[in-house]
Every structure is written in structure tokens, then in C-alpha cells.
Amino acid sequence: MFPIELSEWAALAPVYILVLSAMVLFVFDSINPRTTNRAFLAGTTTAGSLAALAVAVWFLLAGVGTPQADGGFGAISLFDGQLVVDQLALFFIVVVTVVTSLVSIASYDYMKGHTYQAEYYTLTLLAATGMATMAASNSLVTIFIALELASLPSYALVSILKDNRGSIEGGLKYFLIGALSSAIFVYGISLVYGATGFMQLDAIAENLDADYGPLLGLGILMLIGGFAFKTASVPFHFWAPEAYEGAPAPIAAFLSSASKAAGFVIAFRVFTTAFPLEPTASVIGVDWTVAFIILAIVTMTIGNFAAATQTNVKRMLAYSSVGHAGYALIGLAGLGAGANDVVMGAALMHLFVYGFMNTGAFLFVGLAEHWGVGRTFEDYNGLSAKAPIACVAMTVFMFSLAGIPPFGGFFSKYFLFTASIDAGLLFVAAALVINSALSLYYYSRLVKALWIEEPVLERESLSQPVGLYAAIVFAAVMTVVVLPGFGPVADAAVDAAAAVVA
Amino acid sequence: MEEFFTYAPAIALLPLAAFVVALVFGDAMPKKGAIAGIFATAGSLGLSLLMLAAVASGEVHHETYYEWAVGDTAGHTAAEGIAFTFGILIDPLSALMLVIVSLIALLVHVFSLGYMNAEGEKGLPRYYAELGLFTFSMLAFVFADNLLMAFMFFELVGLCSYLLIGFWFRTKSAPSAAKKAFLVTRFGDYFFLVGVVAIGATFGTLAFAGDGSFVAEAEAALDGGETLFGFDAETWITITGLLVLGGVIGKSAQFPLHTWLPDAMEGPTTVSALIHAATMVAAGVYLVARMFGYYALSPSALAIIAFVGGFTALFAATMAVVKDDIKQVLAYSTISQYGYMMLGLGVGGYVAGVFHLMNHAFFKALLFLGAGAVIILMHHEQDMWKMGGLKNKAPVTYYTFLAGALALAGIIPFSGFWSKDEILYDAIILGLESNVFLAAYAMGLLAVFFTGFYTFRMVFLTFHGEPRSDAAEDPHGIGWSVKAPLVVLGVLSLVAGVANLAPVGKLLDLDIMFLEGWLDGEYGGLEELTYGFYGDMLPYETALIGGSEETTLLVAAALSLGLAFSGAGLAWKLYNVPEPTEHTQRLGGARDVLRSNYYQDEVQVWLAEGVTLPVARAADRFDQTVIDGVVNGVSSVSLFGSSWLKRIQTGLVTNYAALLVAGFIGLLLVLGVYGGWFL
Amino acid sequence: MRFEPPNVTEMNEWIAVGMLAFVGLLIPLGMMAVSYLIRPSVPETSKRATYESGEVPTGGTRIRFNIQYYMVALLFLIFDIETVLLFPWAVVYLDAVESDAVSLAEILGPMLIFVAILLVGLAWAWRSGAVQWARSPFQVEAEADRP
């Protein structure tokens, strides 16, 4: 249980494993171009992400990131503080690798018969690498590089169904909005650099200079823009519905869960490490939490309201994913009112649970696409008669997303609710409740379609692809069992949050 | 003997097991679940007798078995909070009642073999399952150690009687009667529930006994002169006591909530026997006895109980006079007799009330089972005008029924005389001091005459004279399972009075008042639940005729006995003839009023349709328009907003970029103005 | 009372920036407005045609280009940037080898890994046909995706 005795650089082992798996796939595809050996490709991806997951969990349990006072190893700083491996980083590496492995298992069936098999898995792994690196980044430069490493494969992945117009269109829109957002983000980085003279987050915090208040404020706002793009928050969310709708369903799951979580982790880290609330507020004249309060309310409202009347299931999930970004933003909006670790811990919990339930929901859509039943709510009518297990799982996802007990989504949302009340954000708490109520409307619409409505057409019996089913059922089981197992998750989340907000 | 108490829960659980067995395996069993029920109730009876013996040896069982919720209270004992528990309290009163209930239940089960099985009824497993559940609920209600548990099983008793009254649910009248019973008693139970909540909130406990019982808390509050919820302690105790009394009035069929009981005759006669003698109706009076200490703190509540009881006794007795259906007569007699018990309790005659409850259980079960036997004899004919002359053809039925009738009419030396006399004695010694009690006593006394009359009218019409129909000429045979319970109960009706021969004891100065001693804790019991303790709490002043107890006793007994004899004599004169005719015509207009039960049903229907229905309609309209309107408005606004928001997503990436930048600039402006960046 | 000139240093420096932006917008807009006002307008079909250096245009503007140009350009770009990273490393390499503070593996290792990753990418791109100028019908067939 002493991973650090290896060497300090070993702290990034999860990232190395992901890179190595991608390299293996590259070599394999080079030797055997256009391979359709799905078992090897999906297997390597899954094995790689699971290995990374295992190492990350091991590190977390062994005490990497736990303060040395508590008997841990403390946060491990690498490359002169450009990267840092602490509890927050490991927590999100866990989230990312879990989603990656679910997605790669499900893709085994989903990608059957498509070209670019090897490219698909390689890009997935590279994107996961970028996200994992985002989690560990501690400097604006590494953040930007990691963010681009995560984004560029994502653009390609969204449009990987080259003969599908929706896929290409979604990918292109994603890319264009992404380019715009990256530009804004880089501009923000340059302004922050200009105002403080540093890129490294701790150094920025020590060099907040009152002379450049507005400049720094504009830079911070532009950074927020970059994060908002990555987390699909309003007004940088416009790519999300089209990209998720056009992308292969596992990729939509990947983007809306892992990529979003990675966007949140850098936002958490930058704003807690580089811009401590009070010093920053005295420099720029305003609490940056105000921006997040506005963003959180607007994002959850627009996401949920737009989702309410969608007819396309995937698009509904895309908007709901925007809404959930709004919920998670409470983690930043509620800082500065005392119980910082609880507020942010609640957001971390929500992202963790969301990683399961949202991935599972998109994978169910992938299953439906695999069956070829169609895309709208009506097309899903009466699916439960043919595929009860998958529909039970989907029902679990829907109710968990809506935040109904006894599923995991209820707890995380409940913690967010109490945390926002503790933080005195009554408006945010009210918006959370109203939006959750509204979200129940459209989630239960889908459940109703699955279980109650009569199918429009008679259906043949549906196939049961092993990989997709396994991933969906596992996600459903996890969504349910995080309830009894919530203690450790909650502790880990609060510890991780406490380590950065302290 | 204490180790017997380990088995206390089994008293109730055995019938519950019978319920499950009959429900699940009933169809496959030889007697369709009857055997399971008989064994279970026999077991309960045996255990109850053990409990009786254990209590007699001086032990008391009071234990909490399960605590299912703990909370805070707003009352004056808020510091400790309130715990909701299931527990068992076995003291002299509940031990006695357990024996009565399980005995009657056992006899009813046995009788059912002849009444239901032999007659080839359908749905017997359901019947026996419901009987089992009924017995279970009542037994658990009897040994409940707190008011909330009592309330829960009180409700379960109500549910079971609903199920059993509606046993023949394919007929038109039975489901309607069942619904009526359910709704009318529910109306009373509503007040009971409010009372339970009020008591719990006020005193922070619902326990009947123990240091922290609500009775003790109430007494402390009374002594301390506390103000509870804005009232002085006595007023508040009266209010809560009367709320609980609402449930009692509903269940024990006291005026004005008695209307369900005559209709409840739609159920099988065995069920009527169980309901009237030992379970449903008895539950109400038992509850008053159980928490008598609480009522003893409130003279107003007791006066109301006494007056309602006296009034109901007379009121129901007059209605029984004109009924033609044998079961109807018995039903009104039940209402009347429970009126006596309420009167007895109301005048502080705790022993007298419980004594009458016990005696009534025996003779009313006997009369109903006897009526059931008559109905078997008569091929399911219930109109007394079509009977007659059964005396010689069914001697066992006749003599046992006669024993029951003598007890009911209060003829010496049958059990009913002793208890009724004691109630009236307790009433008259108060009545000499206070007009309210005098009125209650007068009504009770007058009811004795009517009781004697209708009882013997029933006996003569049924058994004497010439047969007035083919069925009466050639009665159906009856088996041992019918006769055995009749004989047992007949003997009990004759001798049960021995338990408390108060007049004899007082006149001859003998110590033969066993029941009084029993309830006074002479053999063992909880000090705060004894007759003597209650007596000390009561604020009553009594007076005696001529200042002598003997004189008063003799006068009271002579009055009631004389009236009973004259009533019976009138019946003998009018109806003990070979060909009796209807004399009700002579009553003129009064006959219609009596036949229509004083138009009570009409009044209640008018209340429901004329008052409640418009209010309900108005509430419904408010719900439909205002509440639903707001809800629907919110949803349509949301959906409209949703479709509007959807339109932002035009699909053109240039629009997205523009909106993105616009949103960003908007945020910049907000923060910039807020943070003063542009200055 | 004495007249006081406005204190220039008290003015917000952002005013200068704002003025610059304003003037920067004003000049082109003004030029466009002036030219719009004074130019003659003689619409004619040939004026609307695509300008192809005097040639008569053939076909529309929406034609497909061969993507190979971009492939080669991308590969070039990657290796160009690699050189940018290698150059400073090469400059400090000898000094680092001479110093005792860092071992040879620490100096050489990361860059070798970096180059190795690039080489894997190059090999893959090569094998995937990124540098292949034309394709046989067989290869084209294999790329057809599921509809």
C-alpha cells in the first residue's frame, strides 16, 4: 500500500496506463489496418480503463492526497507544480475511467459493422487521457493542453459515423463552438497571465494584483466561458443538443458524463486554488460566485425547460444533461458561506452518481439505436414487453435523474439542496426544486412510454447484445447500490473537496 | 405465575395465525378453516384463563414490546418527547375481558359449524379468516397498553366487522349495511383520532398505566392548576375525553350514532353474536372502562356519558317494542343494554358497568346464537309472526333462549338482574343529589319496563302459541355444535350473577362481591387502575333514601324488578295466546314513529345529502377550479416556456456563436457593473 | 477662484482603449459608407460571375478538394512542432549531461518517449494511408460505412 515508494512520477500511473492502452491500439492498427477484431479493441480499451480505475482507487485508499497530518501522503506535486495528484484529481480520474470502461463495453455491440473501429477506441482512450490529465492539472498551460487533448478526439468521435449527416453536422458544430470557446479560454488565460504574471495556479493566487482588477476580472470571466463550454453550461451549451443527438450514443454518454465531469474538476481547481474567494473579490470588486449563481440558475432552468417538450429521446437527455450541469454548478456557486467542503462535496457526489445514471441512460438509447426502433418517445412505446430488464434499468436511470428516492440521484440532489440552503442561496435552492419537479415530468414521460403505452407497430423480438446489456445493468445496479454505499462516496467527495477549499 | 405472561402475545397471535391458515389453506381443509379457528380460539381461551389465574395470584403484566416511532411533542411534557409503542397490559380488567372475548369467540366458532358449514354456505375460508382476524383485533385491543395501539386495533375491529357484515356481498342489502356500519363508526372514530392526537400532544404519552401514563399526567396537571392549550386543565381533559368518547359512541352504538347496528343484522347471525356480545360494540364500553381514570377527572364528561347512556337505554328499548324481525329486536336490545353500561360507568359505577358488560356478553351471545338456532329451525325465516310453537319441538333452544331472555329482562335470579340492579342503584344514589343523574336514572328505570315487554313479546311470539307457518310446523333439525354453545351460555346466564351479588352481600353483610374485589385489586392489580382508586378520584356526592343503604337497595331493586315483571306480564297477557294478533295498531301515530326508528335514518340521510353534500361540492369546485387551475396554469406556462426555449436552438451554428457571445457579454456587463470594472 | 486644467492622469486609462476601438471601427465603416454613396451602380450578369482571373468560370464553387493536401500538411505541422520542442531541449542537452544534478535517463528519457509516441503515430498514419496519394477500388470499398 505504498505506491509512492516507487517514485513520484508514478502518481500519474492512471494517466500512463490510458496512454499506453492507446499506444497499443495504435500499434495494433498499424500492423493490421482497418481491423475489425472488436474483441481485442474493446477488450484493450476496457482493460486499460479498468486498470487505470483500479490504480486510482488504490491510490485513493492508500492515502494519496490525504493530508500528511492524517497519515496520508499529501498531495503529490509533479513537474514543478504543473500537475498535482490529490484526492480531487483521483476522485475525478475514478469518475472518468468508470465512464470510459462502461462506454467501451457498450461500444463492443454498438460499433459492430462500422468502419474506423480502431480509431474509435483509440480516440476514446486519448480523450479519457485528456480528461484524466485535466483532473490533475495545476497550471493554466497544462489545463489548456489537457483540455484540448480531451476536446480534439471528442470532435472526431462525434462525427465518426461519416455517412450519417447528423453525426457530421453535430461534430462540425461541436468543433466550431469548441474553437470559439477555446479562443475565449486562451484569451482568458493570457489576460490572467497579464494581470498576475504566472500560469501556475498557486502562484497566481499569491500574485493577485489590485492594479489590474478589471483585467483580471475579464480574464476570470473568460476562463469561466471555457469551463462553461466543457461542462455544457448556458450560454456555451449550444453545441450539446446537436452533438449528443448526432454522436454515437456511447460517445454521447461519454461526453455528457466524463467530459462534463472533467470540465467541472478544472473549474473547481482553478477557482479554489488560483482565485481564493476573498482576495480575488477584493481585487476584482465582485465575488466570482455571483457569476456561478447566475450560471447555475440559468443553466438548470434553460436545460430543463428546453427538455420538457422534446420529442426525441436523445435530445431530451442532452438538455437534461445541460440541466444537471446547472445542478453541479451549485458546487461553485455556494462557496464562501462557511461549509465549503459540504457544498463542493455535494457537487462531486452528484457528478459521481451522474456518471452512472446518465451514462446508463444514453447507453439505453444506444441499445434502442442498436435495435433500430427509432428515436422519438413514441418509438419507445411498449418496449418493456420485449426487453423488460433493460427497461427496468432505464426506469431506474430516469427516476434517479429526476431525484426520486431510493436511487442515488436523490441523495446527491438532496445534498445539493441542503448545501445550497446552508450556503444561504435560497433562490438557487428554489430553482433546484422547481426544476427537479419539472424534470420529473419529462423523465416520467419516457417511463410511461416504456411501460404503459401500446407500441405503434408490432415488434419482432429484440436481440440482447451482451456488452450493451452488461454495461446498462451494471450502471443500473450502481445507481441503486450507491444508496447503501453512499457513506464512503460521500466521505471521499467531502474529503476531496475539503482538500482544495481549505 | 409470572412466567405465564411470556405467552401473553400468543393470545392474540393465535387467532391471527388462524386467519392466515384459513385464508391460505382454508379451501383444502376439511371444515374450511373452522378447525384452525376453533383450535386457535381455544388456545386463546386457555391462555386467557392462565392470565386470569396469574392475575389472581397477584401478578400484573405490563411490558412494551416494540417501539416504532419516537418524536417531540408540543405539550407541557415536551421535554421527554413521545414514543409510540406496542405493549401489553394485563391487569384484572383486561384479563377478565380476554376470557370473555376468547370464550365467546370460541363458542361462535363452534356454533358456526352448525350455522355455516352445515348449511352449505360458499366462501367459508373467507368467513373463518375474517372471524380469526376479528378475534385477533379485539384481543389485541383488549390488552393494548396505550391509547394509540388501542385506536389501531379499534379500527381493525371496525374493518373486520365491515367485512363480516358484508359477508353475503352479492345481496343488495348486505354491502349497503356494511358500508353504513363502516361509515357511521368511522364518523365517531374521526373524533377518537383527534382525541388521541390531542392527548398525545398534551401529555406526551399515551400509556394507560404506569408512572408516566396520561391519566397520571392529567391528574398532575389538574392538581397543578395548569393551563393546557389555552384552557384550564379540567376543560381540556373534558374536551379530549369527549373526543375519545366520539369513537365510543360510534362503536358502542349510542345515540345518535346507533343507526348502523340494526342494519348490521345483514351479516350472518353468528357474526351478530360476536359483534354484539364480545367484540365490536363491547369495544367502545371497554375503552371507557380502560381509561376510566381519565374520565373520573372530568365530572362533566361523566355526566354526559351517564345521560347519553340513560337516554339510549330508553330510546332503543321503545323501538324494540314494534319490531317483527327476531334479530331486529335483539339489535335494539343491544343498543339499550349498552346504554345501561354507559349509564353505569357515567355514574361512577365502574364495577357495575363492567359487571353488566360481562353478563351481557353471555346472555346476548346466547340470545343471538339462540336466534341463529331458531333461524336454522325456521329454514331461514326471521319474521316472528311466522313462527310460534317451537317450544315443544326444540326444547334445548327454548330453555336456553328463555334463560337468556330472563337475564335480559332482569328477572331475579338471572345474571342480568344483578348487574342492571347495581347500575340503577349507583344511579339513584347520585340522582337523589343531582337532577341530571336523576333524569338518567329515570330513563334507565323506565327502559326496564320496555325491556321486559319486548323480550317476552319475542319469546312468546317465537316459541309459544300455535305454529303460524309451514316452516314452524316442521322445523329443521339442529346438531350438537349448535346446542353445545347454547347450553354453556345458558348456564352462564343463570349463574354469572354470582360474581357480584352486591345487594345480597350488603343486606346480609357477606363478603361475596368477588368482582368488586377483583376490580379493586384485592387479588392483585395496578394500584392506579383499581375501583377504589377511581372512587377516590370521583367528585360525586351521594345520598340514600331514608339515610339507610338497605332501604335504598331494596327500593331500587323492588322498583326495577316490579317494572320488569309488569313489562313481562303485559307481554304475557297480549302475546301468550294460541293465535296472537298485532297490537301495535293501538299505538296509533306513535307506531309509525317507532317503526321508523324516530326517523333517525332519515335525519342522517338529510344531514349527508342536505348539508355535507353541498359543502363537499363546494370544496370540490374550489379544488377543480382554483387549485387545479393554478396547477394546470403552472404546467401550461412551463410547457409554453419550453417550446419557446426550444426555438432558440435554431440549428444554425452562426446563431449559436452569436448567442454565445451575446450571453457572454451579458454576463460581462452584469459582473462588470457589479464589480465596477468600467469606471 | 483659479482655473484648474483637467488632470489627465486622473482619467481612466480605459478611455484611451475605448477611443482606439472606436476609431478603429469608424475608419473602415466610414470608407465603406463613402464608397457606397459615391460609386455608380450598373448591375450586369458578368459582374456577378465567379472571378477566376479572367477565365470563364466552369461549374459551381462547391466542389470537392482532395483531402490529401491537408493530410500532408497536418503531418508536416506535427513534426514542425516537434522540432520546436526538440530545439530548446537540444540546446540544454550538453549542459545537462555535464551537470551531476540529473541522470542521463532523466534527460534523455522523456524526449525519447515523446519521439517514440510521434513515431507510433506516424507509422499508424502511414499504414492508414494518410500519405498514399491514390487508392485502389478495393481500398475504397473497404471504407464504406454502414448507412
Query: Average pLDDT value of chain C?
Result: 79
Shape of chain B: globular
Broad structural category of chain B: mainly alpha
Oligomeric form of this entry?
Answer: heterotrimer
Helix and strand sequence of chain C: HHHHH
Tell me the strand percentage band of chain C.
under 5%
How many helices of chain B? The count is 28
The whole-angstrom Rg of chain B is 30 Å
Top-tier CATH class of the domain at 64-145 in chain C: Mainly Alpha
Number of strands of chain C: 0
The termini of chain B sit apart by: 93 Å
Which CATH architecture of the domain at 64-145 in chain C? Up-down Bundle
* Major beta-sheet overview of chain C: none
Helix content of chain C: 55-70%
How far is the N terminus from the C terminus of chain C?
A: 87 Å
CATH superfamily of the domain at 64-145 in chain C, please? NADH:ubiquinone/plastoquinone oxidoreductase, chain 3
- Low-pLDDT regions of chain B: none
Average pLDDT level of chain B: 83
The CATH topology label of the domain at 64-145 in chain C is Methane Monooxygenase Hydroxylase, Chain G, domain 1
The DSSP helix count of chain C reads: 5
Polypeptide structure, described:
The complex is a heterotrimer of chains A (about 500), B (about 675) and C (about 150). With about 500 residues, chain A is an all-alpha fold. Chain A has a domain at about 290-500. Chain A contains 19 helices and two strands. In chain B, the strands form two sheets. A two-stranded antiparallel ribbon of chain B has the order 1-2. In chain B, helix 1 (about 10-25) runs antiparallel to helix 2, helix 17 packs parallel to helix 21 and helix 19 (about 435-465) runs parallel beside helix 25. The radius of gyration of chain B is 30 Å and the shape is globular. The termini of chain B are far apart. In chain C, helix 3 runs antiparallel to helix 4. The termini of chain C are far apart. Chains in contact: A-B, A-C. Chains A and B meet through helix 6, helix 8, helix 9 and helix 12 of A and helix 27 and helix 28 of B.
Feature tags:
heterotrimer, A: 502 residues, mainly alpha, two-stranded antiparallel sheet, 1% strand, B: 679 residues, two-stranded antiparallel ribbon, 28 helices, 4 strands, 70% helix
Nutshell version of this structure?
The complex is a heterotrimer of chains A (502), B (679) and C (147). Chain B is mainly alpha-helical and 679 residues long.
